[in-house]
Hints:
Helix content: under 10%
Number of strands: 15
Number of helices: 1
Strand order of the largest sheet: 8-7-6-5-4-3-2-1-15-14-13-12-11-10-9
Protein name: Glycolipid-binding domain-containing protein
Shape: globular
Amino acid sequence: MPQDAKIVRWREWDGPGSEHLVLREHAGRLLADSVVIRSGETQFAVRYRIACDAGWRAESVIVNVIGDDRTLVLASDGDGQWTRDGLAMPELAGVLDPDLTVTPFTNTLPIRRLALAAGQSAEITTAFIEFPALTVVRNPQRYTCLEAGRRYLYESRASDFRRELEIDAEGLVVDYPDFWRRG
């Protein structure tokens, strides 16, 4: 394992599912490479790779559902223009962040990119990827920094869903109540 790599593991809040993520920083870019095993009613495993620039803006998202021939390939210019498998996705115009429902890692991207001070909040829209269907839709959200470097409030602006996230000093989720915890 290269010295510049960080390994993070999460486990499902109430189940045997887990995630193993390797985060590398190299030449001004960030690369997250992960495998997620989901339990529960719909069981599946996913491998994903997300590449970001130094400002935590997503450049690419590649997702494979293990045991399935489908692969999702999203690319972004960092300014809100996306393609899926090489075809333009005008419905994602202005979106900067992907949000994969299978992982708490994608919360880190807006947390790091926005760098909010305690008491500040920001409304964003994400490219929300649903599993195992691999559908991609716009999803309006809000992040509020409750305690810098420690706690954020995540809220969906499309529903009443909200969770208080505990994060570490690097903006990586420690606890996402009812879903994931560092393991």
